[in-house]
Amino acid sequence: MSKCDVGIDLGTTNIKIxxxxxxxxxKTPSVVAIKKNTGKLFEIGKKxxxxxxxxxxxxxxxxxxxxxxxxxxELNKVMLNELLSRxxxxxxxxxxxxxxxxxxxxxxxxKALTETILSSxxxxxFLIDESVASGLGAGLDICSLNGAVVVNIGGGTTDxxxxxxxxxxxxxxxxYGGQHIDSIILKNIANNYNLLIGVxxxxxxxxxxxxxxxxxxxxxxxxxxxxMLTGLPKSITLTQCDMYNNLRSSFQKIVDNINDxxxxxxxxxxxxxxxxxxxLTGGGSLMSGLPEFISKKVGIKARxxxxxxxxxxxxxxxxxxxxxxxxxxxxxxxx
Length: 335
Prior knowledge:
By secondary structure, the protein is an alpha+beta fold. Helices cover 37% and strands 29% of the residues. The chain folds into three domains: 4-129 and 312-333, 2-Layer Sandwich (Nucleotidyltransferase, domain 5); 134-176 and 253-309, 2-Layer Sandwich (Nucleotidyltransferase, domain 5); 178-245, Actin, Chain A, domain 4 (Alpha-Beta Complex), CATH 3.90.640.
């Protein structure tokens, strides 16, 4: 049985699995549906995600990970083991697994995560910082002396790091990401229009309609939901301007943390940062107008990475080459 190298990006919103020489073999929402009476698995991934807000009382739909933290260890274990068995089958026994972590994770959380992976039967577990993985996956030469700032905006957390020579000089992680933006949209619609919409509808509005730079009244979106006053179906039409101010203020928290990282940077690295700009990765970076918004606020050009939603998982996959070449200061083996 040949050795198998597996990368895992366990996100608040999605879970992705990478196999060396095959690429990304699985990308699905990190959502699980279980039977209420028995606790047995009912659906997982996309099918479970589509049940959110529509599930009967007999079915519980949950995110095992919330704001970058595993909130249900048993359910997370079920999800990981099930998905790994689907893509690896018997080859799990020879697998080396690399997973990304962020600085907000406690030692207890990291230990629980690695024990879950080991319980599936894999051979070794490696850990890599999420910011480093996103930079590596975006094509940065993280081994060079040339410093770069990477901002990875995920579903539950935002990781900001100044990277140079295989590691992070300064890093920040905040429990703020795409899910928080969805919540802001939900509250805005409820408070201003007395309309209750689902989480999935808020996410679609964020991706397909909202902007944080130069909104246009000509761009409109129809939202459907439940009238909070009558309880009856209701729809409203919004322009980009209607949500503009709330969204801009919500992204200010990310800007403030980017400024903190840059202000703490050693003088020798600041010129590199100015020349290289700020690299944006993660699903949250796809918000329309975000590179321009950050560029104006920080005073350093921000750019969107190619394939931003997959930078982390590609970086995790690339890390195995550096482990094998003994160039792995940024990766540590835990078992």
